[in-house]
Amino acid sequence: MADVRDPVLLTASLTDLHPTQISVGMREVDVKRDNWRQKEDDKKSLYLGNHLIPVVLGKDSQPFVVDHHHLCRALLEEGVNKVALSVMADLSALEKDHFWFVMDSRRWMHPFDEQGVRRSYQDIPDNLSDLKDDPYRSLAGALRRAGGYAKDVTPFSEFLWADYLRRQLNGAAIAHNFDSFLEKASILAHDKKASYLPGWCAPQVKHV
Description:
Elements lengths: L7 E6 L9 E2 L1 H13 L2 H10 L2 E5 L5 E3 L3 H9 L4 E9 L5 H10 L26 E2 L1 H11 L11 H13 L8 H12 L19
Parallel strand pairs: 2-6, 3-5
Antiparallel strand pairs: 1-5, 3-4
Protein name: ParB-like nuclease
């Protein structure tokens, strides 16, 4: 019989959470901040209870966030103190290098900077407030909401789309004309060159 374990649930201050990636899309963070502000006060606790933050415990049981970085940063900016955590694994017995090796092997980290360049785990910031802004990650998020591709369970799928868009748009300063670049991204999303990406939606073919 399989060994079925109950999930380990904890609470922690957002200032005590450690990222496992270098960048986020700050426009995406702003979208989540707006969504939070629009919630009625008596619904906010329920929302937090339904959005557990998945973490892996590192040395001294420090919690490392493996998903929902944008939400965590948004809540931090909005002055939220504590969030509920779901512990995916306890790696607190591992030394630092071994810890990050396991995190990388299990795809629980994304050490790519705001230029899409892979860095050492040592370049990952210690706290959520020091995450860098990657405008292409914001473009990828907006593209998904606009129906450019489907939501997918592949880890860091939006970053894969961000990398694709970065390569196709060749370093364009998208933050200054975001809506225009979203239109371009919508066209690029249906190109067959994007077919390797998670959630790709093949264009409709009209049969005569």
